[in-house]
Write a structure and sequence with these properties.
Blueprint: E1 5-12, H1 18-36, E2 40-47, E3 54-60, H2 69-76, H3 80-86, E4 90-104, E5 117-123, H4 130-145, E6 151-161, E7 169-175, H5 184-190, H6 193-199, E8 207-208, E9 211-219
Helix pairs in contact: 4-5
Length: 223
């Protein structure tokens, strides 16, 4: 189910038409991509707890899946239901990213990919500071948060295409429960000296949010 790259896409449904939006997304849009496009392996959809903002994370064998005729046809000449719905949504984002690392708790299985909560975090990192950023994230932040029993997995990515924000790095945190965000382990990660040193730089900004898993995971070939 997990690939070497992802397509990360957010949308807000038309006001008062959330049910129709989900019927289109679950019944048509996502299955069409997962089952109809070579290199699309699976997808999971999420909703923000506080409002009707949605996220879809598509797992790709590689970013080359987005160069196939099947994908380009769906993107540039959408069918009538898709064209009609996309003309009405808002809050659109689209980030293509290649995975650079996967880190799981020792007691977490590969099922962590289907965790109830996903916590995306985005950064724009100047090339000259990539080494310091990567060392902080992989050697300091990730080991600290993974000491929390409900912090199941972290995946790190380099963003290769962005819309709309020029983010360069992304991390997806997979949580068993929202309470992980209030854990002592997360507090320790936020308070670390290495993070404080990076946070003093003018470029350092964190764009992060939370999403709750929707009922169905879409897997290629599954009923």
């Amino acid at each position: 189910m997990k690939g070497a790259a992802i397509l990360f896409s957010e949308m807000t449904p038309p006001a008062g038409d959330e049910a129709a939006f989900n019927a289109w997304y679950d019944g048509h849009h996502t299955p069409s991509h997962v089952n109809g496009v070579p290199g699309f392996l699976s997808a999971r959809r999420y909703r923000k707890p506080e409002g009707p903002n949605y996220l879809a994370v598509y797992e790709l064998a590689s970013v080359r899946a987005l160069e196939t005729p099947e994908y380009k046809s769906r993107k540039f000449t959408p069918d009538p239901p898709t064209k009609a719905m996309l003309g009405r949504v808002s809050g659109f984002t689209r980030y293509i990213a290649e995975e650079t690392g996967t880190y799981r708790r020792a007691d977490a299985s590969e099922a962590a990919l289907d965790a109830p909560i996903i916590h995306p975090a985005f950064f724009t990192v100047p090339a000259a500071h990539e080494r310091d950023f990567d060392d902080w994230y992989t050697l300091d932040l990730i080991p600290t948060v993974l000491r929390c029993k409900d912090w199941l997995m972290v995946r790190t990515f380099r963003i290769v295409q962005h819309d709309p924000e020029p983010f360069t790095h992304m991390a997806l945190h997979y949580l068993a429960d929202l309470s992980a965000m209030d854990s002592p382990e997360r507090a320790a990660a936020v308070a670390s000296k290495l993070r404080a040193r990076l946070a003093a730089a003018s470029w350092f900004r964190v764009h992060a949010t939370l999403y709750v898993r929707r009922p169905k995971m879409f897997v290629k070939g599954a009923a």
